[in-house]
Design brief:
This protein has about 375 residues and is α+β, with helices and mostly antiparallel strands. About 30% of the residues lie in helices and about 25% in strands. β10 and β11 form a beta hairpin. The structure holds flavin-adenine dinucleotide.
Length: about 375
């Protein structure tokens, strides 16, 4: 079999998580010869531990463009899921019935209403349907809510899918399209070449490529300066609980609860400023389980069968970074903390921009130059 890394490639994507693989699939769809270089299986990744929401509600407070970008991906998702099924024979079980954030007190209802009012009143905010529902109305959609549920916010755009199947579908589609995936190829150096393009050192060899896309999650922080890019990202831990399977009772995803297509209930997901994802304690998991049980008493009768923690890739303001290097054209950076939600955008919108060599002005707000705020005296 020929060595896919022996000849110069059109594109090398560094990082084989959901984000890198989505971009790589898009680049193959655009006809570029593309390889993914990834670390080994021990690497800490967000892509195998996420909550699997395709989520729009409450995204973008502080940056209206992020809401529009998220809405765009949510709109593309049905077509992208259909394409993935065709390309990989894997159904990612996408459902987009709309989603709820449940409130357990009047104070929570007020806080929620206030947040969504401020969010949607921002200049340049794409009009979004949202409503606060009282308990009686929520109960019609979610008949098993507990007595403490006062009401909820609802937006019709939200959904969820089977996350591990998404990951497999992306990798399968990429391989079937002729892309090559290389685990145990941690990138040690990227050097711009005098006439254009890059030489990448990984897996004990040198690889040549016209374009390099940094999609290495928290690893981007180290790689970015090598090619004139910036990735001020940090790991943020999230923990998730999963119950045994039960009969379907949750017809809509709730921001912290969803019933999977296989019947288990996922309870999520914390946001902790910790880098260590090796240990879990009962404190935070107990709080998550307590709220879940108050929202749906049935959950209190179910056994917990699994729990895990994983590291999100977080920027200072929580919004994504997309950047094309000015000093090393052909080097790109992409990072975000909602790589499931944005997967359709990354494959169908961002990848064509990378092929064309131009980042659309609509993505200018996502430049890391937004962090260049002079320190106050
Ligand atoms: C608890 C939790 C819940 C979440 N819930 C949701 C959700 O509901 N909806 C949603 O949209 N998103 C969610 N996310 C986020 C989502 O999982 C990530 O945005 C998505 O996985 C994309 O991550 P990534 O590919 O950028 O990073 P990662 O998954 O971290 O992948 C980065 C890859 O780069 C590789 N790498 C790093 N350095 C190098 C190097 N030097 N050389 C080669 N390879 C390298 C790593 O090995 C890894 O494979 C959640 C995340 C967590 C942790």
């Amino acid at each position: 079999m020929s060595d896919p890394l022996a000849s110069p490639l059109d594109a090398v994507v560094i990082g084989g998580g959901v984000l890198g693989t989505s971009v790589a699939v898009g680049l193959r769809r655009e006809g570029l010869s593309t390889a993914i270089l990834d670390e080994g299986d021990v690497a800490r990744r967000a892509s195998r531990g996420n909550f699997a929401l395709v989520w729009v509600q409450s995204k973008g407070l502080g940056m209206a463009a992020y809401s529009s970008w998220t809405r765009r991906s949510a709109r593309l998702w049905p077509g992208f899921a259909a394409w993935l099924k065709e390309a990989s024979d894997i159904d990612v079980a996408l459902q987009q019935p709309g989603g709820f954030t449940l409130c357990l007190s009047e104070a929570e209802m007020e806080k929620r209403r206030d947040l969504l009012t401020r969010l949607t009143a921002q200049p340049g905010f794409e009009p979004m349907e949202w409503e606060m529902w009282d308990r009686a109305r929520v109960r019609q959609a979610l008949p098993e809510i507990g007595p403490e549920v006062v009401g909820a916010s609802f937006t019709p755009y939200d959904g969820h899918l089977n996350s591990l199947r998404l990951f497999r579908a992306l990798h399968t589609a990429f391989a079937r399209l002729g892309g090559s995936y290389h685990p145990n190829h941690a990138v040690e150096a990227i050097t711009p070449r005098p006439g254009g393009g890059f030489t990448i050192k990984a897996g004990g060899r040198e690889i040549e490529t016209a374009r390099v896309i940094l999609a290495a999650g928290v690893g981007n922080a180290r790689l970015a300066p090598w090619v004139g890019l910036e990735a001020p990202v940090r790991p943020q831990r999230g923990q998730v609980l999963v119950t045994e399977k039960t009969a379907p009772f949750l017809n809509f995803p709730v921001v912290n609860l969803r019933q999977t297509d296989e019947g288990g209930v996922m309870i999520g997901d914390s946001a902790e400023e910790l880098t260590d994802d090796g240990e879990q304690g009962l404190g935070i998991l107990g709080t998550m389980a307590n709220r879940a049980t108050r929202m749906f008493p049935r959950i209190g009768t179910l056994n917990i069968v699994r729990s895990w923690s994983a590291l999100r890739v977080m920027t200072k303001d929580g919004f994504p970074i997309y950047q094309h290097s000015a000093s090393a054209p052909g080097a790109w950076l992409a990072t975000c903390h909602s790589g499931v939600t944005l997967a359709a955008n990354h494959a169908e919108v961002l990848a064509p921009m990378i092929k064309a060599g131009v980042l659309d002005p609509a993505l200018a707000p996502f430049s890391p130059t937004r962090f260049h705020v002079p320190a106050s005296a």
